[in-house]
Every structure is written in C-alpha cells, then in structure tokens.
Amino acid sequence: EQIVIPPNLADILKAFTKEVIRQNPDNVIDFSSRYFARLAQSDQPEGLHSANLIALRGKLALADLQQTGEVSYDVLSALCDEVGMGQDDVERMLKLGDWQG
C-alpha cells in the first residue's frame, strides 16, 4: 500500500525535535501535546510556520549557486510550493520583507 507523506512533515518534525532538545522537558508527551496544540491554534498562516521557513531557507541556499543572495520570483515560488507554502504565503513574505520587484 502506498502512503502519501505531506511535503512539510519532515520540516515540522525537525522543528519540533529541535524545540524538545532546547527545552529538555521532563514530560515529553505533555510537552508534545502543548507544542502541537499551540501550532494548530496559531494565528500564523499555515505556510508561514517556522518549520516551513526553515526548510525554505535551506532550499534557497541551495538554489543560490552563485551565492548572490538573490533568486528569481519564479524560483522562490517553486521552492515555497515544495515546502508546503502557497502563493498567498509568497506574497505575504514579499510584503513582510518590503521586497521591491
């Protein structure tokens, strides 16, 4: 049987794992419950969670082969899609960053 793995699952689990290591909770189950409840109730748009942004940062670094710190809008949009971020998230990031295109 084939299973479909959400594109951002690894990034969500990576961000969660880092937070567990940072916090070193006595009760990991309780911590996990609270962590994911906060994540689910966050007023942050779905695609702009830190796990997605961490994954995007890594993909942007790989896409910037000349290390100029720049990528095209099309590349940014495609990379955002790969990490589970939608077109609305791309536009929101550009507004937050005061991008001049």
Rg of Cα set: 16 Å
The amount of helix comes to 55-70%
The total of helices stands at: 5
Shape: elongated
- Report the end-to-end length measured between terminal Cα atoms: 46 Å
Largest sheet: none
The unreliable regions are none
Order of helices and strands: HHHHH
What topology emerges from the helices and strands here?
Blueprint: H1 9-23, H2 28-41, H3 50-63, H4 73-82, H5 87-96
Helix pairs in contact: 1-3, 3-4
Write up what this structure looks like.
The protein is mostly helical and 101 residues long. The chain has 5 helices and no strands. The protein has helices spanning 9-23, 28-41, 50-63, 73-82, 87-96. Helix 1 packs across helix 3 and helix 3 crosses helix 4 (73-82). The longest helix has 15 residues, at 9-23. The radius of gyration is 16 Å and the shape is elongated. The model has no long low-confidence stretch (mean pLDDT 80).
Summarize this, please?
The protein has five helices and no strands. With 101 residues, it is an all-alpha fold. Helix 3 (50-63) crosses helix 4 (73-82).
Distinctive features:
101 residues; mainly alpha
